[in-house]
UniProtKB/TrEMBL annotation:
<protein>
    <recommendedName>
        <fullName>Serine aminopeptidase S33 domain-containing protein</fullName>
    </recommendedName>
</protein>
<dbReference type="InterPro" id="IPR022742">
    <property type="entry name" value="Hydrolase_4"/>
</dbReference>
<feature type="domain" description="Serine aminopeptidase S33">
    <location>
        <begin position="46"/>
        <end position="146"/>
    </location>
</feature>
<dbReference type="InterPro" id="IPR029058">
    <property type="entry name" value="AB_hydrolase_fold"/>
</dbReference>
<dbReference type="Pfam" id="PF12146">
    <property type="entry name" value="Hydrolase_4"/>
</dbReference>
Amino acid sequence: MNYPIVQIKTPDNLWLHALHLRVPNSKTIFLNIHGTASNFYEEYFIEVLTEKLAHQGISMLSTNNRGTGVYDAWQGNGAAVEKFSDCLIDIDSWIEFALEQGYEKIILSGHSLGTEKITYYMIRGKYAGKVSALVLLAPATSSGSEPLLVQDYEKKIEYARNLVREDKGKVFLDRNAYGNIMPKSAESYVDFSDLNPEFDDALPFHKKHLPSFRKIKIPILAVIGDQEEYTVIPITEALDLIRKENSNAKTVQILDCDHDFQDNEEKLSEILIQFLGENNLCHHS
């Protein structure tokens, strides 16, 4: 049998793992980038999408990246220490893997923080031209969110900046510094803030314009729920902005749905397959 767990080594010597479930004779792959501190298997919608996409002749590559989990002592990576722009290295590596496997069409998907990473990738990534469609699952914005989530944010970000200036960027801040989600190193904390201009090439909804997103020329699908979302601005305004900024974008909101599409996996699959069919990316098996 073909072992479905695969691994790659990035150019900066980081081992990453993924679930690769290949449909026989498939030339199209759905490549997913997970959200903050998640992994390739945690969200149940991945399991459902894998099954539904297989019936359309589409293979699945659900990937880990250097933001997997909070902290991995073995390699010194994880969401607590990652830097946003390094997502280019990870996505480059996974697309290279897909191309080496003989896939000709790549559907690049991201969930939550992953939506920011793949949008940024389409502007800066080495293989952006190899991507046939973009799927934003629960699109989010990191830039602009921290002041809303963190008490005394300005004081904490200045403390982190001072640590970086003193060459102490790897010192961990406490869990409360990052919206009570997890501890963050000072340099990662600063990197995931408004101080980082790289986020202007992602999804800065709070700025009410998306100049980089506007440049993407392939079909785009954005699907989001109505509970526990991270758009900073109201969800419907974020969806309106996505459509306004890019005529290639289709948006769908699922009601009574949380950030991870729990109990709405079938509905999500239907929306996705309809979108892929409209763009000639389904190949019924």
